[in-house]
Amino acid sequence: MSASSNAAQKFDPARANEYQAQSRIALAGYDACHELSACMLTATLGAGSAARVLVLGAGGGAQEIVTAGRLEPNWRFTAVDPSAPMMDIARANLEQKGLAARTDIHLGYVDDLAPDQIFDAATLIGVLHHQPGEEAKRQLLRSVASRLRPGAPLILAGNRYAYTSQPLLLAAWGERWRMQGAMAEEVQAKLGKILEGADPPASEEVVAELLADAGFEQPTWFFSSLFWGACLAKRATTT
């Protein structure tokens, strides 16, 4: 079973149903991150442009599509996610928001897409830190790069520190849950779960190295919230 398959199994029906509410607690600034991601793409591609955007890990609320689709009415999206329960939630939300007609749904992985599908931009939000080990992360980024035209932007967002390397941030993350009403036992359970459940890159420098290895230019960081960071990197125009 591949690393991506193992990551997909985390998002069973129970976790899918709680995803949107819990994500907004775990990531302070969840909506702001998605809004700024859309703004960064528009600033790169141009307001009013016509673009095809690849959205990896779109399951859940498809917030990337909802936010960017509201800003740019001429963009079309291809939503990719291997979790059926998460994609069901995304599909329902896109239909409710009137974006289903502008979105192609693909249940599976980026490597399953037709070879001739090339995109003007891509987003990879909350996905990379679920890939165990640097090689799995590198391979995913290479697969994304192969789907982008030269110079196309990628929004990459996720946790970008080894959790145990930042004890103050980890403690603050626990207090964030307590602020939202979690009891002490629940906070400890969530801290244990995050330590076991993901494998983020060790630093922003490692993220930049992974992107460079996959064929992207130096990233521009534009959002930070405790462990979480978001950047934009363009696919290199030369190899």
From TrEMBL:
Coiled-coil segments on the chain, per record: none
This protein's record includes keyword Methyltransferase: yes
Species the sequence originates in: Paracraurococcus lichenis
Protein name: Class I SAM-dependent methyltransferase
Gene Ontology BP, a term: methylation
InterPro entries linked: Methyltransf_25, SAM-dependent_MTases_sf
Single GO molecular function: methyltransferase activity
Keywords: Methyltransferase, Transferase
Superkingdom per UniProt: Bacteria
Keyword Transferase: yes
Methyltransferase domain mapped to chain residues: 53-151
